[in-house]
User: Fold these one by one.
Assistant:
Number 1:
Amino acid sequence: MACGLDATHLQVDQQQKGSQQANSYHLYKLQASNYHELIDYPFEIAEQEKFDFIIHDNEHQTLHHSFYLSGKQSANLGRLQQDITQICQTYVDWLGDAPFDDYTFMTFASGQDYGGLEHINSTSLITPRNDLPNANEPKLPSTDYQRFLGLCSHEYFHSWWVKTVRPDVMIDVDLRREAFTPLLWVFEGFTSYIDDFMLQASGVIDKANYLRLLAEQINRYYQTPGRGNQSVAESSFDAWIKLYRTDENTGNAGISYYNKGALVALCLDLILLKNSDGRYRLFDVVKAFYTQAKQNDSKRIGISSADMGSVIEQFMPLAEWEDFERRYVNGVEELPIEALLIANGVKIQANTKETADKHVPWGMRCNETPAGLKVNRVMRDSLAARAGISAHDVIIAIDGIKADTKQLTTLVNTAHPVECYLFRRDELMCVQIQPETTTKVKPRDETTGMTGAVPPHKVSLRLAKEDKTLENDNEQLKSEAGWETWLNVMKR
Ligand SMILES: [Zn+2]
């Protein structure tokens, strides 16, 4: 049995009278001091593998950690222990101490399921077993294993950043009704930025792989047209009715506060670093809130949007924060990701049309069925949307030929108008795809720092230092206060 609460072990291996066989069972007693504590301590009873490790805080206190693994799996536990220990120690080195004396990871390995939930001194995780390290795991974790390490990192950090510092409306929660807050982007967003960041800060992955993870986050943002429609504060507030109730129009109507929140965190981190010549950064904002929480009797703190301003003000002028908040948190202005990364010696390479055409032909996602191409989603302002194609339509013929994925791919870059026959419910319709004759290029927007072209569909990131030719591309790339400061949380 695994649990964040101390379990009293009462009985084991009792020999039954008159029986040759040992009737082996365990009996445990768990005690929570109140209802909120009771529901914050999950427990797992299973056939488990386990390892323990110790983390030291800055006062040389030892924090006992246990990691339980259940479900059918054959993970390389030695490797897991080494990497998880390194990640946890990096968090405690940064934050100085922890809001717990001991910590329990409970992981269930399954086929495809993925997710985690944070608790004050434990986490309950579910992962595809293929994401666990294998016996021959290469020194640099596979992308699957990186995802699992990212999950552990995410939920572990939540002990500080959600369980200890949290939105004010979630301090004394009335569990009978929803608690609304515009700040989920702060909690899930900062955590989604910091979880991957700490994988490279702890040395478990290298910088190139960190940039790959960050590029994935950036690509998700660029591929969500709803980012121009819903602010990250609104996305937070509407979590109860939007994020957990997605439909075919979700990507057109809004943005995830995890995804955009992570990139707002990145921008804020880079702006703080730039404004202070590398002295302050997002990590100092987090630590300032955690320090406030420790001074409270309850050892926790609930924060509001106004509190964000009063803490950030210690690290940058309030007016600048308010301007940032107005544009990128409460507004839907395009994030200045590219300009900020370039200023830190990271080059974005963007691919616009070709990859978009390959992955979402005419801006729609379909799957092939015996009845035809079933449209699952249509991206706003895409060729398909302009032609009048809608989610749930079934395309039966394109250009006079029975529609399938292969045919769609060959026609995607055609220069002439294409007729599509489709069923909407049981009605037969004919629509015309009009290929773009000119590439739409928006004028350069100095305030947002966008390159001027349509937002990229897919980007990749590279450190300028590793590609000398890039340094000639941009004056800013020559600046020395670059990625070495950004990618290092401990040494400043
Ligand atoms: Zn989370």
Number 2:
Amino acid sequence: MPSITNHLPTAELQALDSAHHMHPFTTNDELTQKGARVITRAKGIYLTDSEGNEILDAMAGLWCVNLGYGREEMGQVAARQMNELPYYNTFFQTTHVPAIALAKELADLAPGDLNYVFFAGSGSEANDTNLRMVRTYWAQKGKPEKSHVISRKNAYHGSSVGSASLGGMTPMHEQGGLPIPGIHHIGQPDWWAEGGDQSPEEFGLARARELEDKILELGADNVAAFIGEPIQGAGGVVIPPSTYWPEIQRICDKHDVLLIADEVICGFGRTGNWFGSQTMGIKPHIMTIAKGLSSGYAPIGGSIVCDEVAEVINACEFNHGYTYSGHPVCAAVALENLRIMQEENIIDHVQNVAAPALQEALNKLGEHPLVGGVNVSGLMASLPLTPHKESRAKFASDAGTAGYLCREHCFANNLVMRHVGDRMIISPPLIITPEEIAIFADRATRALDATYADLKDKDLLKAAS
Ligand SMILES: Cc1ncc(COP(=O)(O)O)c(C=O)c1O
């Protein structure tokens, strides 16, 4: 029997946690000093911690709990599937009903001729699949040298060696000798931070054309694919200018470069359509999926693959797969998630109810002296903090100082907003109501006021020169 229960005092749980548990993306020694917040249960959009605080989760966990917490149907389906068939693989001439049904459902939901699914356990694994799949595709077509992949600085595609190499996060590349060879990074379409005096449209075109420059530099015969999140999530909710994606699509088509849309965050309703590719008007060859596929209730991801690529891959033995590819319990949970999303018209709710309410609330927050702008698409948003609104100035202090302070004030006000550098990130469960958005806005205002006062006290409201 497990001897560690929710009934232990918080301090004891924290001590045990720091004695044995290494947290991801964390300086564990610092966490030991502060003590981790112990989350004990959750319902709807609220988390409860071991001290009994009710915290509004404006991040849906890690951008994933789209249906909100505590949906009993999901647990019931998982239990039923565990009793019927808890596990079997799909490697050696076998399959099972949850994997069949989920692949069919995803092919129906995905746009165009994205009709095949290769399952993985996470977004990182799925992007590793994509890297190997696009290289194998071109090799099978007699062009093994068409193997380089182009991505973007500040992109996030996962934490495995392959997917972190595809990503463009400098602090990740600095650890463990990344990126692996054959992966290149061009500039991101972040007008707010990098657009200078250019209009968003000019800047979007200029950043897209970096792709063509890179393809010409490497030689189109050497470039397998371009990968991008329709809207960068972990990079700070970077919504590209309207000129960006059409130009990227044109360049990929012209040079016969496969287009991979990483839909791990944008997929399954986050931007107000089933997929971010639809919101941005992109026609990808492959879409990476995870997170919202199961609303985070079970670890599952995958690649949705177009006919053209699947036909080539299916003609050879693709020496790739994971023990948990298409895991029956995870697949059953994902299917139930998609069933509920359709039954409850969640996409419609995002588009017509929640997104307009969030937009209105954020417009008000945008008037706060500390907020430099509002980036929002559907239920995915960021508020860049700035000491000087008009010039979109950065702070003179180390990047992330103001954002971190604000995150702490959010926590103190029972609100989870994450910070990426000095941007506050919002990505609530898709079921959030306008009334709950009003509560979010109230807590966020209090956190912003407290951050402003704090920055003033510490003389940190200075702009970088
Ligand atoms: C766009 C994107 N791709 C891939 C991943 C990696 O997914 P996972 O953490 O499930 O491996 C993430 C995770 O945040 C993501 O945001």
